[in-house]
Amino acid sequence: MVSAVRRPIIAGNWKMNTTVAEATDLARQVRAAVASHPDYHTEVVLCPPFLSLSAVAAAVEDAPIGVGAQNCYPADSGAYTGEVSAAMLVGLCQYVIVGHSERRGYFGEDNAFVQQKAAHALAHGLTPIVCVGESLEHYEAGTGAAFVTAQITGSLHDLSADAVGSLVIAYEPIWAIGTGHAATAADANTMIGAIRATVADTWGAAAAGRVRIQYGGSVAAANAATLLAEPEIDGALVGGASLKADEFAAIIAAAEVSLP
Ligand code: PEP
Q1: In which residue ranges of the chain is pLDDT below 50?
Q2: What is the pLDDT of residue 2?
Q3: Do the domain assignments include residue 203?
Q4: What is the whole-number distance in angstroms between the Cα of residue 238 and the centre of ligand 1?
Q5: With 0-12 CB in 10 A as exposed, 13-18 as middle and 19+ as buried, what is 38?
């Protein structure tokens, strides 16, 4: 059962998929699926590629669906060819994913850089979805919790307790992303509990009680209800399954079923 105090949040990370036309169509399909459940309490966020932010924002206008970017660069403007700042995202979206393991892995982004991005997003009124997660090596060595909690303190250091309480953390074990092998609900709940305990130790109990922590990694319609039944798991960051409107809608429905 998800928390009674933290509103569940299901976010779709479309990664480098969808043309503008495809993204518009997918957003419209999700909108239609959500529209048939006006009583839903779960927060829904779509994170298309930068190019489609404007079209997706228009497609979900006046619907109870948020929009997020998948990345930002931590400077307002300047000679950073190919980058997009949080300042440029204002008005197009409310959320921005930072520190996704694909960016940490393929583009060498470390905790200090992720922290700069999170602070930059917050400074522009956007809510960062800060991703953390251990590799298969750490998982197998039993060092996953130590690695992930160090990612939390490193990626959020110098942020205020109020800021940390306001953001979203996504716990995404790298070995579970795109593999079809999600963490067990019990393991995900334990790791998210460890993350929340780290937030409590560093930023205090109020921030730990507020911060929403998602699980991500091969979440699908078939396993969502089991994962979201855990008390520490406040939602899901969904990759592959978010590209199919009916599958994504089923995950949102699973969050609703898990409400207290
Ligand atoms: C992700 O990359 O954020 C993710 C969770 O992907 P998938 O759901 O495809 O494992």
Answers
A1: none
A2: 64
A3: yes
A4: 5
A5: exposed
Distance CA(249)–CA(33), nearest Å, equals 6
Ligand 1 atom 2: residue of nearest CA: 239
Rounded-to-integer distance, Cα 157 and Cα 199, Å: 11
- Tell me which residue has its CA closest to atom 6 in ligand 1: 239
Which residues participate in catalysis according to the annotation? 100, 172
Q: Which CATH number covers residue 91?
A: 3.20.20.70
Do 16 and 37 form a contact (C-beta atoms < 8 A)? no
According to the model, what pLDDT value does residue 1 have?
A: 56
Its domain, for residue 134, covers 9-257
Mind listing the pLDDT tens digit for each residue in 152-197? Answer: 999 999 999 999 999 999 999 999 999 999 999 999 999 999 999 9
Evaluate whether residue 3 is within a structural domain: no
- Position 4 in a domain: no
Q: According to the model, what pLDDT value does residue 227 have?
A: 98
List 35's β-bridge partners, or say none.
none
Q: Give residues with Cβ within 8 angstroms of 259, minimum separation 6.
A: 1, 2, 8, 41, 42
Tokens of 164: 């940390």
In the block, tokens 């970017």 appear at: 69
Q: How far is the CA of 156 from the centre of ligand 1 (A)?
A: 22
Q: How many independent structural domains does the chain possess?
A: 1
pLDDT score of 213: 98
Query: Quick one: DSSP state of residue 67?
Result: E
Name the packing angle between helices 20-35 and 245-257 (round to 10°).
Answer: 40
Kindly give the distance from the C-alpha atom of residue 17 to the centroid of ligand 1, in angstroms, as a whole number. 13
Domain membership flag for residue 1: no
Atom from ligand 1 closest to the CA of residue 178:
10
SS3 state at 73: strand
Please state, in angstroms and rounded to a whole number, the distance separating the CA atoms of residues 21 and 2.
Answer: 35
